[in-house]
Amino acid sequence: MNENDRTAMMNRRTLGKGLIAASAAIAGAVATSACAASPAKPIGTPLPGPWTTTGTLRRAGGVLHYATIGAANPAVPPVVLLHKLGGWLSDWRHVAPLLAQGRQVIAFDLPGHGASRWDGPAPYILTLGEIAALLVGALDEMGIDKVHLFGTSLGGCAAVSLAAFWPERIESLAIISSALGGRRTLAQIKALVDEKQTNLFDKNGDPLPTTADQLRQTFGIINADPISAEGNQSRLAAGRWTQPCERGVAITDIAGNIPRIQARTLLVYGEFDKAYHKFRATVEPTLRNGQTVVVKNAGAFVMQDNPAQTAQVLNAFLDAGL
Length: 322
Hints:
Elements: H1 3-36, E1 53-59, E2 62-69, E3 79-82, H2 96-99, E4 105-108, E5 117-118, H3 128-141, E6 147-152, H4 154-165, E7 170-176, H5 186-194, H6 212-219, H7 224-238, H8 242-250, H9 254-257, E8 264-270, H10 280-283, E9 290-295, H11 302-305, H12 307-320
């Protein structure tokens, strides 16, 4: 074998090894992508919706992402929408345009969720007070004094803190399908969140995909298949910020803050909700100026499960305050 033959054989061997390595890398990337079920767009990109503007605000070591629809009206406070734990502002995309009649609607990605990103790793606990303060700072920077504040799940709990401690900023409040419980100890939180959610999070705190059946059984969701598929995308975007936010809910005496709320308040539940109705008996008697409405043909995620009736309920609440 001459020198040229040896060189050609070595090149073929090198090429073969390179192809094997490249094939393995491609296969791994494909497998990762399939498991994540992520769209081609960057993680955290909102799903197509009706938004007329989007933007970001630098706040205390992070960036809050928001989207708006409807023209700002100085005479009418805007509606601010806050999404669920592990969700994103896209959760509201079907309801937002139905609320933007003569008023501006602003939906926020909560810290660590959607396209809102913070420097460094997530803390062990992100408190509701911190979230509320960040939102107040964002409203200040946007030149907004008073809002109608509508939140669900994590967003509803953060809305309680904001309304309780910044009452002058809230024209009205809607708390939708939210865990309005009392304060838990760190030991209880560790047992509840860290040790018992192995089917929802891996050992590093990254969310695992959930199934449509899990949504039906836990939250009574009717349209569980599309909501589950979208939820796995939004949970992927929230990543390791999901559990810190859940701990922030658990360590807060949300029920104890309800009597502090001065604004006109609406409690909203889905007809088939299996998770949040249990808080009604404790919270309803403590509301200063409140009422409760049940959205028909919906589980806990009413803005996704039955957006048309959810918008009807919220618009009626807004109109009643005129």
